[in-house]
Predict the structure.
Amino acid sequence: MSSDQKRDADMDRLLRAVLKPASQTGAGACPEPGVLAAFVEGSLTANEQSALDAHIVECGRCQETLAILSHELPVLEAEPVAPAETGWFTWVTRPRLRWLVPISAAATVAVVFFATRPLIAPEGEVPGGEVMRMTQAPAPSAVVPQTGLDELREKPDAATEKTELAGVPERERTTSSPTVQPSGATGARGSLADAQAPATEPARDRRAAEPAAEMMAARVASEEKRAQATAPAPAPPTVGGQAAVAQQAANVPVQEDAVRKEAAAEKDRAARVAGAPAKLVRSLEAGPVTVREPGGAALWRVGAGGRVSRSVDGGVSWQPQASGVTADLLAGSAPSPTVCWVVGMSGTVLLTTDGQRWQRRPFPDNVDLVAVMATDVRSATVVTRDGRRFETPDGGRTWSLKQP
Amino acid sequence: MATKPDDRHAAVDDALVAQLARQARAERWDLSADDFGAALRRSVGHRFTGRPPTPAEVDQYLQSLHLEDLALACACARGHESAWVHFMREYRPVLLRIASRGQQADRARDVADSLYGELYGLDERDGTRRSLLDYFHGRSSLAGWLRAVVAQRLVDRARAARRLEPLPEDDASMPAAPGSPESEPDPDRRRYLELVRRALGEAITGLEPRDRLRLSLYYAQDMTLARIGRALGESEATASRKLERTRSAIRTAVERRLRETDRLTDAQVELCFEHARTDPAFDLARALPPPERG
């Protein structure tokens, strides 16, 4: 043992000798049970809490009371747990999700860039290179004519600066000497519209995600192709429709596995980013959301795929429960040990009134629900991803839009 | 911390009472606006003892209350049958569980049951029913309040029992007091021990109350880091980190004082710790200032 460790051990022993259980009560009278309960529930003001700290530190009675109460209090996770009533922005700014923020920002800029290029492009011009970039990563065995890319490389490009601003990774910028051409493809406009509109149904989510994913994936593939200066260029397509895009997608060759992997990763990332923010969070975030009943007697954990589990021992052990849904669950609110409301994707609202069995409650809109605040088994307010608030006074049978 | 109810200034207008009663769903228990309003005003009076709160403070305070729990407690205190049935169904397990923390399992039920009479309001004073639930003001959850009530009673019962334990009859087995001639092989020992006591006492009393409380719960109450975290609203990791930081700060402060104020050399500082380590009766309680009596 080093002298430093020995000194630490000495200090530990000395503190144990000094800090014996206080036999007397502290300064002033002990707090009433309501104040002590508010203290452990964290609902006192800062001044009240500080005053109570000063009392308890001198008061053996209160310390012993606290010691008993501590058995019944819920365990707090090491990382701050997002309250059930938070929006998705708070979620993605949680420490373990902060890495998503720059990716989301970059991808959003990229989507906007691609979608707005038709406004810049000469009317009716559909360069073949852009169509190539609109396609998905191709099958390895495909063989494609290589004419046309050289011509593209020679073209001056007004969108060069935009490309860089759009958040293209440094690796791509350094390998892509030619610049991209604006596209007149209607798919870009469509993808923007889909990506920006609130996702009212899963199918729309997919439509929004796929074009953006294809764009991101195709960018990587086409940039790599253009780096091969000696390769013959494929013939440009004659039209810019989706059929032509699909045809080209099947014909683009892939030279390296790394490129394919990168393209797939980009596609995956873009698909997530182009989808709903809440969906993005749920699909990428590993940890579930913990919902705490105010008294701490019961905890619920909800998460992706409709998973729900409950703990009645402060989080020491968890019992899975059947939620009856497969939608990602995003938030919850438990006003009592037996009542809990949970909301999630696509208008999912679940309610348990006995702490065990879950019932799906109807919701008038298929929008994602990102937060819920319940006061009891009947009254709850939910927040949609686009910021609207709906409330129910009758256990979720009827909902009314709450005016801001 | 006991406060004398003072609802002279608890201006809560009827419209606000009606709104809060709706939020609390007081109609479930047929609770009149007058009764619920009286509970709200009592709560405000308790919170702002001795000074009139501003309307904004009152509003903020009322909105922070556990209103549904307050309405239930109010209805139970007034003997509403279905409210009491609901209370028993929801909160009896809470009472039993917390009672079992301080008692053997078979006595937990006795402890919990002994409260029911008080909660129900069997006592009458001046012809008025008096329920323990009248003292619930909604600042915490009802479950949390019940736990605190039971926990305080368990502690009081245990402390009363400890007071009845006989004191040791023979002091011969006690170690010699530090500083007594027979325990003083080193002439500087007594001085060094005194310096350590003083330095340690100063370092501890200079801590923030929350840091000192964490230290007390760990060393005096032998609570685990997980339980300390729960009691103070921290994660176990946070409690551990802060405890370690406090311990390190105390050590630094003690060593600095011994070196800079008491002008001891490193060897003498080492000797100080050596003496403190080997002293069987090292007790710094007297170095700490006694708590002020209010």
Notes: Confidence is low (pLDDT under 50) at residues 79-95, 118-256, 265-286 of chain A.
